[in-house]
């Protein structure tokens, strides 16, 4: 894909001015991956959270691993805004307060790892982390189907129970919150890939649909805001990243609109296996 050409163009270009030159001289394949990644970010925020992992893997194929993490964070924040507006009254504030301390610990550990890791190591970590999270997701859903639990209902297209995450009980223990919160914080700081862990936890808490979507939207908005100063301090968000994101934000919004339109039309039981397979295919080149 000659991604290094795009990287050199981005590094050489100031934040304001030569952006049209970057667009016209960048390799077509690289820009295609960037735009598709932005579309998938928008889609993930309004309909299909699992799609984020595909966008993460695609972006890391085009940009250096650390820079891709910074660009993806800005894209996720731009997608968070319409999501939290749509579900502004549906978040479980009690659960958010309980989860955030563990998530903050995971984010801090992830930031320290980012500071020490080389770009090559980061690329492999992103790939392996995505694969591990997929395996965990498949294993959890397989057990849920055998037991007839909430994961099985979600995978089969059934509605979650009417429990309110704060009072219902699988996965609500302090230990479960600490483990899931810390893992979500680390994986989202290192690879912007905390979605699978968090989704599994919220499914275990038996949220109804709107509470699930609202709590997820607000959770990641707060987590992404927490990550922002760490990413700036580590130098993975800079003027060139802002310039690139400014170009890609319209694609994020288009993806969010498309997700809103498609949300009620695609059965989860059909789409989930497709997302898993595509994510594995996208992650494998990163670990090669």
From TrEMBL:
It is found in: Cell membrane. Residues 149-166 have a biased composition (Low complexity). InterPro entries: TM_pro_TauE-like, TSUP. It comes from the Bacteria. The keyword Cell membrane applies. It is a multi-pass membrane protein. Keywords: Cell membrane, Membrane, Transmembrane, Transmembrane helix, Transport. The chain crosses the membrane at residues 28-48, 99-118, 125-142, 182-204, 216-237, 243-263, 270-287. Residues 145-173 are annotated as: Disordered. Its main location: membrane. One of its GO terms (cellular component) is plasma membrane. It holds the Pfam family TauE. Belongs to the 4-toluene sulfonate uptake permease (TSUP) (TC 2.A.102) family. This is Probable membrane transporter protein.
């Amino acid at each position: 894909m000659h991604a290094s050409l795009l990287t050199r163009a981005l590094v050489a270009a100031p934040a304001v001015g030569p952006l049209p030159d970057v667009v016209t001289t960048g390799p077509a394949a690289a820009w295609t991956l960037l735009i598709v990644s932005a579309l998938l970010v928008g889609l993930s925020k309004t309909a299909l959270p699992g799609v984020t992992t595909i966008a993460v893997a695609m972006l890391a194929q085009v940009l250096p691993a650390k820079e891709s993490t910074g660009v993806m964070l800005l894209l996720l924040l731009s997608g968070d805004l319409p999501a939290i507006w749509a579900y502004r009254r549906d978040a479980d504030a009690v659960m958010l307060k309980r989860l955030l301390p563990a998530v903050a610990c995971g984010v801090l550990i992830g930031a320290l790892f980012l500071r020490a890791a080389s770009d090559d190591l980061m690329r492999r970590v992103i790939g392996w982390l995505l694969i591990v999270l997929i395996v965990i997701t498949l294993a959890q859903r397989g057990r849920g189907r055998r037991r007839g639990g909430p994961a099985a209902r979600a995978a089969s297209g059934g509605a979650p129970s009417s429990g309110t995450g704060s009072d219902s009980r699988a996965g609500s223990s302090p230990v479960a919150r600490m483990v899931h919160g810390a893992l979500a914080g680390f994986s989202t700081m290192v690879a912007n890939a905390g979605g699978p862990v968090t989704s599994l936890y919220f499914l275990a808490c038996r949220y109804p649909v709107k509470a699930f979507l609202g709590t997820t939207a607000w959770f990641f908005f707060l987590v992404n805001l927490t990550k922002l100063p760490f990413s700036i301090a580590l130098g993975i968000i800079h003027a060139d990243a802002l310039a690139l994101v400014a170009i890609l934000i319209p694609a994020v919004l288009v993806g969010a609109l498309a997700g809103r339109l498609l949300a009620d039309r695609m059965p989860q039981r059909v789409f989930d296996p497709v997302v898993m397979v595509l994510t594995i295919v996208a992650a494998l080149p990163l670990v090669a």
